[in-house]
Specification:
Blueprint lengths: L9 E3 L8 E5 L7 H4 L9 E5 L16 H11 L7 E6 L1 H15 L8 E4 L20 H12 L4 H4 L2 H19 L13 E6 L5 H5 L9 E6 L5 H4 L1 H11 L13
Parallel strand pairs: 2-3, 2-4, 4-5, 5-6, 6-7
Antiparallel strand pairs: 1-3
Helix pairs in contact: 2-3, 4-6
Length: 257
């Protein structure tokens, strides 16, 4: 009997010969399809959207109980491009991208040429309430609380019991990963970092505090809007993302960190 195929972690956009690869990590409860829409409008990169278990093409697969388990599985099962690449993450996706980068360094593997982190404050500032964890709430309460705090859940999902059932599992699992996460101090990463955020979401000083986590220059950009500012201002965000990727080297110019 042949071995089962590995989980499908990556969903690729159209190839862009000569361009770096951009791996995109979705927000809590989100899916790879959120960022595949960008592929058409991002000629500066070959886009690879990361699909976690419990949603989309991996619906029904069990999620990971912790950030440590998620990162370990990704590193064991995903072979990143040998050429230049960058990570983009939004909200929980930012934290996942950051921890995977730390895992790559610990394993002696190539690091991304840039981290673009969106909608998430520097992780040494604990901002998640652990005395009242959302992932313990009943399904409807969980969805309604997340919608009230962050928005981003379409009205058609809020209005449909069937759609709620489809999304609540991934949402609960992602919040468990977030709410059980503990940041552990390590040396800052030798990777340049760009941080995006909505003006009505996190305070600027929470975003500026990412400088503690990199030895390289930090760039911070804020946009009008809240936690899902990137849906409100897609053209401005994609333009800023393209600017952030300009200094990702061509393959022959890449220097190992």
């Amino acid at each position: 009997m042949s071995a089962a195929p590995p989980p499908r972690w990556l969903i690729a956009g159209p190839p862009r010969p000569g361009a770096p690869t951009l791996y995109c990590f979705a927000h809590g409860g989100g899916s790879a399809t959120e960022y595949l829409r960008w592929a058409r409008d991002m000629p500066q990169a070959t886009l690879q959207a990361v699909q976690l278990p419990g949603r989309g093409s991996r619906y029904g697969e069990p999620m990971f109980p912790s950030m440590e388990a998620l990162v370990a599985a990704f590193l064991a099962e995903v072979e990143l491009t040998p050429g230049p690449f960058a990570f983009f993450g939004h909200s929980l996706g930012s934290l996942i991208a950051y921890e995977i980068t730390r895992g790559l360094r610990a394993a002696g593997r190539p690091l991304p040429d840039r981290l673009v982190l969106s909608g998430y404050p520097a992780p040494h500032h604990r901002h998640v309430r652990v005395d009242d964890p959302l992932h313990h709430l009943p399904d409807d309460d969980l969805i309604e609380r997340v919608a009230k705090i962050h928005g981003g859940i379409p009205q058609e999902v809020l209005d449909s019991a069937e759609l709620r059932e489809l999304v609540v599992g991934a949402l609960r699992d992602d919040y468990r990963v977030l709410e059980t996460y503990t940041w552990r101090a390590q040396d800052p990463l030798p990777v340049p970092v760009t941080v995006f955020g909505g003006e009505a979401d996190h305070a600027r000083e929470e975003l500026d505090a990412w400088q503690q986590h990199t030895t390289r220059p930090l760039t911070v950009r804020q946009f009008p809007g809240g936690h899902f500012y990137l849906r409100e201002n897609p053209d401005a965000v994609l333009h800023a993302l393209a600017q952030a990727l300009r200094d990702v080297p061509a393959p022959q110019d890449r220097t190992a960190y």
